[in-house]
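Bumping with the actual sequence this time:
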Amino acid sequence: MAVAAQIDGAPVGLAVSAFVSVSLDPPLIALCIDAASRTWPALRGADTIGVSVLTEEHAWLGRQLASRSRDRFADAKFDETARGALLLDGAAARFECSQESELPGGDHLIALLRVESMTADPDRKPLLWHDSEFRAVAPLP
């Protein structure tokens, strides 16, 4: 997942590997974020946050967003919503969210986000993080 927002005129974002649907009414999702993240404290204060499901073509971006040493947004195209969420162009699904609450979860934080709007492209295959590497989704034989 690419999690991003425009804050004080600059893009701020990170990669998240744990994402789950929580509720349909109200529409809620949860993200698990490293408690030591230096990026999440800035993102949590954004009016809205973009959550984009990466596709197989975005493996390079997943690594780049997880990097601490380079421009996380180099060569990536994001669309900015009216409230400042950044949504990845070409994502399998895109969610504009506001923060609902946050809970401690061991060495991670569990961010509960309210989905304000979402779009999805069923023709785009999501990218998975499994066994410390990116994997493609494949149909069962």
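The tokens above came from a reply further down the thread. The mean pLDDT is 91.
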